[in-house]
């Protein structure tokens, strides 16, 4: 392309070690970075939960102060949603999507690296708040006006808002990237209705992200402007209506629920056909119901606000739409069951987790339908019944499916199998302790125990089930420890995996395990749903014999080169956002300006970065 | 970021849809930005008429002045179209003239906005007691009408509108400020392209860089038309 006289440092050539990871723009390495970081965050969120369960194990305990308890539940939820489940989904998007659509990378590899490092920066801003001025304490939904400066003068809310803004930038960049990748980089012949289900659900999730995140971005901007500059968005004394926050938050928040669950549904839709040795029952219906869920997810947000007094008409409308959205979800469950019907099912660990997902998600779905009725919700609002519901859909749903996906794709990532015996033990431990933890919350919830209280008195009769839930929580922590041990052990000395250990159906199983750096030596050609299955059973080749789209051999494949700039741009954002929290001090303001300047310079340099180093030319 | 992916993939990559990656990215971004401005505009509309103290829109807005800046921004969209057309026909000199004039019109718009913001911040209630006609006063001015009582000829008082003054100030400055930031970014982008073209970096074959900037520019322009209608016109003529 253009020859430039602007001095731009050359790109790193074959960096190794830590430097290699920092400058990597390989979607597989970025996927691994996402997965590992998200798992560490999952552990920290889990520890926060254990702390709360310890406090609530017995009545009238004083392990934590009410102030710390507020911070614990805020941090637990924000961590699990934004720093654990979403990035775990992103880990799978990164690693698996290019493999499933037969591509060598994502559409914008450097933007992808930028997404990861920015996510890490946002995560650190949130988590470090424990050590610098206190964690946020207003719940993950941060209702106005308790987030206002007059009720919440510390820096906790500032960290929370800044962190979510930075995480939003990361999520948006990733979502843009995956929309373009999936729409534009499919292998020849892979029409939309031949895409694997996980790819489909990723596409829908990316659209939801792109449309939902700007809404919370605006809400957070308004909150920050109130706090920083004394504006009036959420100041009732100036005529403001705090319900504005609730509307904006839940217009984002309900699509967010589907951002968390659709990738899980995609993973399960891959695993169940594979282990049933049957094609997915009613493929177009599953795709369509995913799209309908994505669309209708925008029409139900006020079901989080049934008790704020929107009036009977609004409540009825939102109750009806909420009941209606259960239909496409139910359709999917019947499709999964139809897939298994008459199949030769093998109960390997990924399949067990997928089945656990279906079972637990049904329970969570049913309690969800229960509070879709505005009248019944008025009884359940802000009780442990809702806590039970959200954990059945997010732990029983998302986390179970993500664990299933880890067991399923681990051989492709590492070239080794996860230990099957330990895996089965792992599954039963998670499944049983999960139910011990969260099922009793239905009972204490219906008995009227409110959420977010740090202590309760024995006379209410909540002692027994609280103790059970706390025991379950510690058992669940042990189950996750078993998972960790299995991952580490298997990664180091697990049995070597073949290219196709599960008799898979989609393109990622047609290439060696672990995935070669260039993914596909030849770009495959797709002639139907489940192309690799067709190749194995009906001898339909996925790659042309000669010529066609993929005549490259492994040595002449051009891969995008590593780059410093995405990393530097993210560092700039991190420093800038951190500085702006302390905008009132000179140091903070300076850091804010310098950080943002570093981001701008990095993005500018990024756009002028040369194509290939001369040494890399063939 | 404009040139980022071009260097990454070259201009002639094959894509599934035939649409360039960066063009698709730009469309996705604009969709997202729609929701961004949609939320800001919704906030403005929800709080319309909810301010407890003045000044209110009809006190500060000057439709003729803002119409001029709106016209300038609309014209800049036209010169952007001409710039792109000149580029695809290989008329580099015309391209440079048009792209620079687009940037200059963008800067003019920003200039108007800065002037307007300062004007609002220095708003003064001015009542000519000698020829007092209460019917012609705005709601806000009426609250000062009784100050004329003791034979005062003229009454003036500083009541600047800032983001802190009332809900109107808060929502108005935030919405139009973010739009102004978008225009500023666009101007920087256009100037970068112009600068690049003087070094020979923009050629008819690489018109995608300009195409993307144009797409962005037109989008920002359309958003302004919505803001001008909802905020300015409905603010001063609530009847329509
Ligand atoms: Cu909801």
- Report the sheet-strand fraction of chain A: under 5%
* Estimated helix fraction of chain B: 55-70%
Q: Reading side by side through the largest sheet of chain B, how are the strands ordered? A: 1-2
Outline the low-pLDDT stretches of chain A.
Answer: 1-6, 545-555, 613-618
Question: What is the chains' assembly state?
Answer: heterodimer
Q: How many discrete structural domains of chain B?
A: 1
Q: Supply the number of helical segments of chain A.
A: 17
Q: Which structural class should the secondary elements of chain A be placed in?
A: mainly alpha
Strands of chain B, count: 2
CATH class of the largest domain in chain A: Mainly Alpha
Name of the CATH architecture of the largest domain in chain A: Up-down Bundle
Count of discrete structural domains of chain A: 2
What does the model show?
The complex is a heterodimer of chains A (618) and B (240). With 618 residues, chain A is mostly helical. Chain A has two domains: 29-542, Up-down Bundle (Cytochrome C Oxidase, Chain A), CATH 1.20.210.10; 568-618. Chain A has 17 helices and no strands. In chain A, helix 7 packs across helix 12 and helix 10 runs parallel beside helix 13 (420-446). Chain A is globular, with a radius of gyration of 25 Å. Mean pLDDT of chain A is 90; it is low at 1-6, 545-555 and 613-618. In chain B, 37% of the residues are buried. Mean pLDDT of chain B is 88; it is low at 1-12. Chain B has a single domain (30-123, 159-236), classed as Up-down Bundle (Four Helix Bundle (Hemerythrin (Met), subunit A)). Chain B has helices at residues 4-9, 21-46, 57-60, 63-88, 92-121, 139-142, 167-198, 208-236; strands at residues 124-128, 154-158. Chain B has a two-stranded antiparallel ribbon with strand order 1-2. Chain B contains eight helices and two strands; from the N terminus they run H-H-H-H-H-E-H-E-H-H. Chain B has 240 residues and is mainly α. Classes of the chains: A mainly alpha (618), B mainly alpha (240). At the A-B interface, helix 4, helix 5, helix 6, helix 7 and helix 17 of A face helix 1, helix 2 and helix 7 of B. The site of copper (II) ion has 5 residues of chain A, from helix 7.
């Amino acid at each position: 392309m253009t020859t430039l006289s602007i001095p731009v440092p050359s790109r790193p050539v074959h960096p190794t070690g830590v430097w290699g990871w920092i400058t990597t723009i390989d979607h597989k390495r970025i996927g691994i970075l996402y997965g590992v970081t998200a798992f560490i965050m999952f552990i920290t969120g889990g520890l926060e939960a254990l702390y709360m369960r310890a406090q609530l194990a017995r009545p009238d305990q004083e392990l934590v102060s009410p102030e710390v308890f507020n911070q614990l539940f805020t941090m637990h939820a924000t961590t699990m949603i934004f720093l654990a489940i979403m990035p775990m989904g992103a880990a799978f998007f990164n690693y698996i999507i290019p493999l499933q659509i037969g591509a060598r990378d994502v559409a914008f590899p450097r933007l992808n690296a930028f997404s990861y490092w920015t996510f890490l920066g946002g995560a650190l801003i949130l988590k470090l708040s424990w050590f610098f001025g206190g964690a946020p304490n207003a719940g993950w939904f941060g209702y106005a006006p308790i987030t206002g400066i007059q009720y919440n003068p510390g820096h906790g809310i500032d960290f929370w808002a800044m962190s979510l803004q930075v995480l939003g930038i990361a999520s948006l960049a990733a979502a843009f990237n995956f929309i373009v990748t999936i729409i534009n980089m499919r292998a020849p012949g892979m029409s939309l209705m031949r895409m694997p289900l996980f790819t489909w659900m990723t596409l829908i999730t990316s659209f939801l992200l792109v449309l939902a995140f700007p809404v919370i971005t605006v809400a957070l901007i308004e909150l920050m402007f109130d706090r920083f500059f004394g504006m009036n968005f959420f100041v009732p004394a100036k005529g403001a209506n705090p319900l504005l926050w609730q509307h904006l938050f839940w217009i984002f928040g309900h699509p967010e629920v589907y951002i968390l669950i659709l990738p899980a549904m995609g993973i399960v839709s891959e695993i169940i056909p594979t282990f049933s040795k049957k094609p997915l029952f009613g493929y177009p219906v599953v795709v369509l119901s995913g799209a309908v869920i994505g669309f209708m997810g925008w029409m139900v947000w006020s079901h989080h606000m049934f008790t704020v007094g929107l009036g009977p008409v609004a409540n009825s409308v939102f109750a009806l739409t909420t009941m209606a959205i259960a239909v496409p979800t139910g359709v999917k469950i019947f499709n999964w069951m139809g897939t298994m019907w008459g199949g030769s099912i093998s109960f390997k660990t990924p399949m067990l987790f997928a089945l656990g997902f279906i079972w637990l998600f049904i329970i969570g779905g049913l309690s969800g339908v229960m509070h879709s009725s505005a009248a019944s919700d008025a009884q359940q609002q802000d009780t442990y019944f809702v806590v039970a519901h959200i954990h059945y859909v997010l732990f029983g749903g998302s986390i179970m499916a993500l664990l299933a996906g880890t067991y399923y794709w681990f051989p492709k990532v590492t070239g080794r199998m996860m230990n099957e015996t330990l895996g089965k033990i792992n599954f039963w431990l998670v499944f049983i302790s999960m139910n011990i933890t969260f099922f009793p919350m239905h009972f204490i919830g219906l008995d009227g125990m409110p959420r977010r209280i740090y202590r309760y008195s024995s006379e209410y009769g909540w002692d027994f089930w609280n103790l059970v839930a706390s025991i379950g929580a510690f058992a669940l922590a042990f189950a996750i420890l078993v998972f960790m041990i299995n991952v580490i052990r298997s990664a180091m000395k697990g049995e070597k995996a073949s290219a196709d250990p599960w008799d898979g159906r989609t393109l990622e199983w047609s290439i060696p395990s672990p995935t070669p750096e260039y993914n596909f030596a030849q770009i495959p050609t797709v002639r139907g749903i489940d192309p690799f299955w067709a190749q194995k059973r009906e001898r339909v080749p996925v790659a042309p014999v000669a010529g066609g789209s993929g005549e490259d051999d492994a040595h002449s494949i051009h891969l995008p080169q590593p780059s410093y700039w995405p990393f530097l741009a993210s560092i700039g954002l991190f420093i800038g956002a951190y500085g702006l929290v302390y905008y009132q001090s000179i140091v903070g303001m300076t850091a804010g300006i310098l950080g943002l300047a570093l981001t701008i310079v990095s993005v500018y340099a990024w756009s002028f970065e040369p194509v290939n180093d001369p040494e890399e030319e063939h | 970021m404009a040139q980022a992916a071009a260097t990454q993939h070259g201009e002639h990559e094959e894509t599934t849809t035939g649409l360039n990656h960066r063009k698709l990215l730009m469309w996705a971004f604009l969709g997202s930005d729609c929701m961004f401005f949609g939320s800001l505009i919704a906030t403005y509309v929800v709080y319309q008429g909810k301010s407890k103290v003045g000044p209110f829109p009809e006190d500060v807005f000057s439709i003729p002045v803002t119409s001029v800046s709106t016209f300038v921004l609309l014209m800049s969209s036209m010169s952007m179209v001409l710039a792109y057309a000149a580029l695809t026909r290989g008329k580099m000199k015309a391209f440079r003239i048009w792209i620079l004039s687009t940037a200059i019109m963008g800067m003019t718009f920003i200039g108007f906005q800065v002037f307007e913001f300062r004007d609002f911040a220095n708003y003064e209630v001015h009542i000519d007691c000698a020829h007092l006609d209460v019917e012609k006063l705005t709601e806000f001015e009426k609250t000062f009408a009784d100050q004329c009582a003791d034979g005062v000829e003229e009454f003036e008082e500083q009541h600047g509108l800032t983001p802190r003054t009332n809900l109107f100030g808060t929502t108005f400055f935030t919405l139009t400020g973010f739009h102004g930031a978008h225009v500023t970014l666009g101007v920087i982008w256009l100037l970068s392209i112009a600068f690049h073209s003087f070094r020979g970096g923009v050629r008819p074959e690489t018109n995608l860089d300009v195409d993307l900037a144009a797409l962005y520019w037109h989008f920002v322009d359309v958003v302004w038309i919505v803001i001008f209608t909802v905020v300015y016109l409905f603010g001063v003529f609530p009847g329509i």
